Each structure stands twice: as C-alpha cells, then as structure tokens.
Amino acid sequence: MSEIKFRRAQETDLPAIIAMLADDPLGRNREHARAPIAESYRDAFAAVDADPNQILAVMTEDGRVIGTLQISFLVGLSRQGAMRGQIEAVRVAADRQRAGFGQRLLAWAIDECRLRGCKVVQLTTDKSRLDAHRFYDRLGFKASHIGYKLEL
Q1: pLDDT by residue (tens digit) across 96-109?
Q2: Burial call 111-148: b when 16+ CB within 10 Å, e when fewer
Q3: φ, ψ for residue 47 (rounded to 5)?
Q4: pTM (2 decimals)?
C-alpha cells in the first residue's frame, strides 16, 4: 500500500511541479520545464513561500511528488467579510491520473480552507479543459460565474 502525504512544497520540488504544469496542451506553450530551472520560477516560489496567505502544496506517494496545487486565502468584504480559498494550478502526474489522487488532493485543499475559516472555495479552469470541468462538477463545485482574464 502506497503512503500518500500532503505538505507545503519545498524549492527542491520545483522540477516536479513545473513538469506537471508543462505536461498538457496549454502548459506546453507557457511553461519551461527544462533544466536549469528559470529564475522566475525560483523568485515566484520564494514569494509564495514567504506569504502566510498562500500555500503551494504537493501530494507525495512514497516520497515522489505526484500532485500539486496552490491555495490563496483571500480576505474581502463581500459575504459579510468572508474568507475565500482560491485554488489554482491543480495538477496530478500523468501516470497517476484517473486513480482518485486528484479527488484526494482537492479534499485536502478544501480541508485546509475550512481550517483557515473560509466560507467559500473557488477555482477557475480553462474552458478547453472539459475533463477538469467534469471532475470539478463531480466534486460538487458549481460553474456559477463567468471568469475573465486580461493578459498583460
């Protein structure tokens, strides 16, 4: 039986995280998984790691990084000052997909949001990721909003 653990990412996890981000049709065009790791990834990791309202997490199986996501804890006035958990960059290693690991990773993230007092957990996913849409629907997420992005 494999041992699955969840923890904050460490800088040494960056190659595995970046590889998962790059391992799909969208990521191939916007990520750079080759060695050496670009300084921009190291800088971003340092900023996220230093911010108490961010968790860059990994899921490991017998010590190997097989999943990742980032949670941003957002404080706002709407919903009577409710805290929100914003989940981004959810990935599971290609050879571990469709085996329930994504569901376990999201359940862990939702629990982290509850522990922080979040009243809402939200996420976005690209319109082209139809499998992801079905996955999030199955977990009880509702496609309740339309999201917009502006590339700068």
Answers
A1: 999 999 999 999 99
A2: ebbeeeebeebbbebeeeeeeeeebbeeeebeeeeeee
A3: -65, -45
A4: 0.93
